[in-house]
Amino acid sequence: MNLQSAMHPAGPDGERIAALSWLLFGGGGAIFVLVMVLVLVAVVGGRWERRLLGSRRAIVVGGIAFPVVVLTALLLHTLGLARAIGLPLAGGEPPLRIEVVGHQFWWEMRYPGTLPDGGIVTANEIRIPTGRDVMLEVTSADVIHSLWIPALHGKIDMIPGLVNHRRIRADEPGVLRGQCTEFCGAQHAMMAFYVMAQTPEDFAAWLDQQRLPAAEPDRPILALGRQVFGAAGCGGCHAVRGTEWNARIGPDLTHVGSRLSLGAGVLENHRGTLAGWIAGSQDLKPGNRMPSFAAALDGQELRAVAAWLESLK
Amino acid sequence: MQVVGFSPMLNAIAGLIVWAAHFLLVYGAQATVCWRGLAGATLWGQPLVPAIVLGLTALGLVAVALIGGRAWRRLHSGLASQEGEEQSQFTLWMSLAVTLMAALAMVWEAVPVLILPPCG
Amino acid sequence: MTPPDTAGDALRHDAPLPNPLPRPPDELPRLERIWRSPRGWAFPWTEVNNNWIGVLYLGTAGLFCVLAVILSLLMRAQLAVPGNDLLDQETYNQVFTTHGTMMMFLFAVPAVEALGVYLLPAMLAARDLPFPRLSAYAYWAYAVGGLGFFTSLFFGLAPNGGWFMYPPLTSHEYSPGINADFWLLGIGFIEISAIAGAVEIVVGILRNRAPGMTLARMPLFAWAMLVFAVMIIFAFPAVIWATVLLELERAFDWPFFLPDRGGDPLLRQHLFWFFGHPEVYIIFLPAAGAVSMIVPAMVQTRMVGYGLVAMALVATGFLSFGLWVHHMYATGIPSLSLAFFSGASFAVSVPTGIQVFAWIATIASGKPKLHVPMLFVFGFLFIFVLGGLTGVMVAIVPFDWQAHDTYFIVAHLHYVLIGGMVFPLLAGLYYWAPSAAGWRLSVRLGKWVFWLLFLGVNLTFFPMHISGLIGMPRRVWTYPEGMGLEVWNMLSTASAAVSALGVLLLLVDLARNFRMSPGGPADNPFNAATLEWLPQGNYAARSIPRITSREPLWDQPDLAEQVRQGRHFLPGTVTGLRETLVTSPVEARPQYVAIIPGPAWAHFIAALCTAGFFLSLTVKLLWLAGIFGTVAVSAILYWLWTGTDLGPVVDRADIGGGLCLPVYVSGPDSVSWWAMVVLLLVDGTVFACLGFTHAFLWLSNGDAQWPPPGMGVPEVAFPLGSLALLAGCAGLLWLAGRLLRQGRARAMGGVVLLALPLFLLALGLDLHAVWQAGIRPTLHAFGAATFANQFWQGLHGLMVATMALYLAARAFAGLIDPVRRITFDNVRIFWLYALAQAAAGLCLTHLLPRALGTG
Prior knowledge:
The structure holds three protein chains of three kinds.
Chain A: H1 12-44, H2 47-53, H3 56-86, E1 96-103, E2 106-115, E3 118-123, E4 125-129, E5 134-140, E6 145-148, E7 156-158, E8 164-168, E9 174-180, E10 192-198, H4 200-211, H5 220-231, H6 271-284, H7 299-311
Parallel strand pairs in A: 1-5, 4-10
Antiparallel strand pairs in A: 1-2, 2-3, 5-8, 6-7, 6-9, 9-10
Helix pairs in contact in A: 5-7, 6-7
Chain B: H1 7-35, E1 42-43, E2 46-47, H2 48-76, H3 85-110
Antiparallel strand pairs in B: 1-2
Chain C: H1 7-10, H2 27-34, H3 50-79, H4 89-124, H5 132-151, H6 179-207, H7 220-252, H8 265-299, H9 306-319, H10 335-365, H11 372-394, H12 397-403, H13 407-437, H14 443-469, H15 486-513, H16 552-555, H17 559-565, E1 579-583, E2 590-595, H18 602-618, H19 622-643, E3 652-656, E4 659-662, H20 671-701, H21 717-741, H22 745-772, H23 781-812, H24 822-851
Antiparallel strand pairs in C: 1-2, 3-4
Helix pairs in contact in C: 3-4, 3-5, 3-15, 4-5, 4-6, 4-8, 5-6, 5-18, 6-7, 6-18, 6-20, 7-8, 7-9, 7-20, 8-10, 8-13, 9-10, 10-11, 11-13, 11-14, 13-14, 14-15, 18-19, 20-23, 20-24, 21-22, 21-24, 22-23, 22-24, 23-24
């Protein structure tokens, strides 16, 4: 199953749009065939057909009356659909709010109200409970991006200085993929994220886990990793809740070990890829804002910091 | 002055000029109302946005009906001048056809206001 | 100047031919000598004749097309497999930006404009369009500027922000290099060159038609070009203004688009797409017009539904301006606003349907022969109808939310543009090549070109519909494995190679079989009905035919011979200079014989230096820009001084048929008056965009920030003072007109020199008023918008000053009198416009905040 396809919907709005798409392809295809057949008839048809087709009346019928009827019906149908997409879905619960901020070239997700002094902050993945409306409130910290989870809904632009809304809902638990669709600079191509729909219970459990501050290192290599993190200056850009680092330039790493991907959908997430990313982020995703640390860290330090980050589940 | 001869061209496109004015006013008015946070406002007891859009559309349709009707009457009155008959028939016919196009466009643009929320 | 009453009689179809045989023996040699192309090293730089400029123009557009195709092959090679590293992300981003920019600005619009420049005079039986040097100037500025733009790619300096150049990505903070400036300055002035061409085409079509070619008899290609040119006049100002704003923001930090200082990135999108959507139809309509010429010739019958098609062209021209938000469905605009644009998008598809069925009806009522042009017409119908249908799909808001900015759109737009423009253009190339080269291009190669391109294009772009819907965004330099995209991308890449082969074969065909042959063929190989198939020379038709129907060559069987013998109007030259016949806009009655300029260097030097000026600005060589600018303006002034407003060289010109026409008119009958009015429409549209900028930023900021704290609205005494000065200036202009009527031209010059300081003082006073009220352009979008107005008014101050000094100089040199007064008329219209615009600008600054109660 394709995780990022408008034709493989996984939620009610995605399904409505996919159904509309099939209607359009069917109707459009039929009209296309009809017009091509008429062209063919105009060339090789019999005298009677060609005389019928070669008149002003044919233009009025085929070029005016037919489109007006078809397009009026289509307009009314699609307006009804647009209205339905704007209305809350059944379920009663108020929508879950998630703020998504676009950055060159990654995503910051915030869950307002999940902590006493704000909310948890994560990156490059949206976790949502199934069967509940989720209202994405999107904006940008720098240039214009656009958020697209084709299986759930169409795009919504993330524009600095403006908050846009997109209501999504997933029916079944599962993982979907989304991507930036407004050209945003060098690594526009590598700005993706995952959506993980979970049962309400699993989602609540995940949320509880995310509410915790970062775990204290319980092994020497992890302690070394935490120390290297500070010494190398990682805290100048990244926040790790429960430590002294709270910069907001790069992704919040409080629970980085629990995430589905690294580098905004570029790599799987485990100790090896973490080390690789830290050492060579400019080789893996050239032009992104994080420097490569291959020269600054030796092998031992790299392994340690990767191990510590991996432990932040 | 031959420039007077330019006016048949203006007549021929008058319907579409009405359309252009209608389009800009409808879009401009709706955008302004929504940006100013007046989504819930009313005009003579009617919701503001539909009232404006439908009012402007009615005005626009009356205008193109007048233009088209005038062209229709002149087209069928046989008053088209003798020497330039072919030409004036053509511009009158065009004037009429263009008003129908403009009316269609205005109706299609106004229909949504009956279905969609004013600013949502 | 009222034309003689005899015109009506001379134009009747049963009147005797205007000129008798035999013709004087020196008539034709004299005509040929006067219209001869420059020889030797002066060619083609000094050439202004539309035949040559048109073909050069087309060839240059074709060159840019081939270059952009090469870029597209690079992109296809990069995307052939996932995770490819043939191009790095920076190169790829420059390549796709340059590809889109070149195809739109350096190929599509110039190519159809070139087709118009080449074909229109012959089709309308004009000797040339009314302003040949303007065409030549526009061409050279475009050619040099376009090559300069393309070169930036070799230095890694090409723009990399997409052809739409959205801020803040293209703002200084995120694009500090000069790459973006290459787009803004390099392309910005090529837009001006497109406008110059449009002015020429509008005036040419309305005023240079053959006698008797009423609007009802005008070829559909001319209808299409008329709509095309009028659309350019209203669409291009928006992109020029958007370009000006972004460059002002980048160069001087005026925050039009930066939200932290009250700007709004969506402002750029509105302005850009107000141009960008009509642009698609600007490209398509001339191509559709060409198809409406080719189809009747191919099937040897009259166009069915001529009136419907003409109406459809005009309706498309209007309705396509109601679609711009079509490209902004995902920006969070309320769904009702989007629905207005959806409705307009549906409406614009009706005229297109009319044209498609008119072509089908025409084919059905004739006997189609499968000449190469007809093959391309069939290919056009196939590809374009498919692209049109996906166009209806993306007009539907919820569907577009999915399709927008994916490869589905890449597929759609290439179907529309290749189907709607390239295939008709190729049909036109194979159809009209004999009119320029004397013989047809190769039939065998032509069929190969067609099939390679037809299959290549369909197999390249059809898979993109699928890859887009299953998750491939646009403008990505690579994509990951495992998303199901591999097979579709590989197919697209392989098929792109097939198309490339087709392009290559076309070039081979052209290289082998296309040679310009001035003097032209007397041949009409497809037995077509319209005037471009008359025997042609550099001077177009030997005598200007009297037209009695839409298909003159079919209905007036001896027309070609009569025209060649010189039996129609103006069979030679009256003044010994290049001339063309000017007719009335609707009925095409002869009004006067206009003298038009011949070969010269001034326009070429001016074009070179204009391009040099903008390119030096881009690379921030201000001193060099200063030199280029000065030379360009001097060359233009020299060209005007020596080549325009010659006055009544002879009293009357006998063009035959009892018609004795003036060779010089002024006022609303003169073509130069029309050109000035058209230019003011452009100017007024830019100013409307300025007004929109103010209104939009006010709405976006809200009352509390308009003006923001710290900036006030100047005391009311200031604008009143400025208004008084403007009124005084208008009064002096009235006085100048009165003095000229009395024959006191030198006194008129003196009054003009008095009026100029009043105007400049009014502008200066307003600048002072704004500054002393604490308004600063860099602090907030309010200030930026206010100063954008100051900038625009200042630019007009500069232009008016140049024009006023030129006018005064002409007056003192004795080159202006109560008859010979076009220079005065044109300067006065422009100046009065500038006064009105300055007054409207005062309203924007001083009245708008007060009216809103925020000031």
